[in-house]
Fold each of these.
Amino acid sequence: MDSVTVNTKEELSQAKNSNASEIVVIGELANKLKRAQKVTLLSAGTLAVITALLGTATITAPVTGGMSYFVAAPAAALSGLEIATIIVAASLGISLIIALFKGYEEIEYSKERLVLRRRKPKA
């Protein structure tokens, strides 16, 4: 079993892309990922709207000094998630989170440590 320990978004993405059989996420990234996992429960339509809203906010954030992230409030109302959860998910990358939890299952979580194991292919 090839286990990879990561503590940055870039390392996490690389571990997922290399199909590591187990990913151990440590530090604040583990807490953020656990919190953002809730996004995977949303419908495809809701995810599309949130992604569109946050995509626009991300593009305009440098110009508006971050004020464009006020669109997170309607996104939160639409999804039923907390604003902070949506912002965390957006900062990690919603597509990364969905792909990660689609291909990996949570084995263990404690503060600042999340263990994910690659799902077995369905026969």
Amino acid sequence: MISDRAGDYLVNLAKDTIKYFLDTGKTMVKPTDYPIELDEQLGVFVTLNKNNNLRGCIGYAEPIKPAIDATMEVAIAAAFNDPRFNQVSEKEFKDLDFEVTVLTKPELIVVSHYEQYFDEIEIGRDGLIIQKGYARGLLLPQVALENAFTTESFLEHTCMKAGISADSWMDESCDVYKFQGQIFK
């Protein structure tokens, strides 16, 4: 994945990007002095927490942009466009904790029977994407740990995130992907 130095850089970049937008209402220009490894296309999520509660989380599951660009975009989205929350205010900015998760490319888990998912998914290592038709839900690896999910409850909650029934993961028409995340705070 990426170095700790690059990960720390992304956390500070997410914070600076949001602060700049709060101060100016504009998107910050991409820095020129960033670690070159951040030019690699990677999936990236920015998570904002306030008092240990989720305050915003948006990202790209697929590696469609350089990590540097993706981080700046999803930082703004997590702070100002997450439909679950009001926009971050200047007043609360100082109370936010910033987290950047860099993702591996999602890998389709191929099984002949749904019970095989229990052997293929490792809680704490894997994040999940579940897709059925146009419905798609994603939960980062840390969500399972933070909520003490079993593999089954992790699959169920990812289905619910997709807006489909909790047991859809057992259906052959449902695709389950796993990925790993490198978390920086």
